[in-house]
Amino acid sequence: MTIASAILKEYVGSYTSKDNSIFEVLVEDARLYIEFNNSTRQAMIPTAEDKFFIDDYFSVIQFNRKKGDIIGFTINFRREKADYIKVE
User: Fold this and answer.
1) Region of residue 35 (left: phi > 0; alpha: psi -120 to 50; beta: else)
2) Tens digits of per-residue pLDDT, 56-79?
3) Which residues contact 66 (CB under 8 A, 6 or more apart)?
4) What is the biggest distance separating any 2 CA atoms in the chain, rounded to whole angstroms?
5) Predicted TM-score (pTM) of this structure
6) Class for domain 5-86, per CATH?
7) How open is the CA angle 47-45-38, to the nearest 5 degrees?
8) How far is CA 13 from the centre of its chain?
């Protein structure tokens, strides 16, 4: 699945959880990446609209929208879910 660069830019930003952990989502070379607390960057593979897979961690990220705008995401990792709110 291919996603237009203009749409990829909608996901870019900082996301935080209740425990104050931070994920950065960025675009590089027309691909979406996620970075946790300034550590290793992982490619996000689109699987559906607003839904991505992170191969190295077998995780699924579902971006959440409100009135068309990205407001956060839910990550499913090892059968556990965590919600992150977009702060930038």
Assistant:
1) beta
2) 778 999 999 999 999 999 999 888
3) none
4) 33
5) 0.88
6) mainly beta
7) 140
8) 9
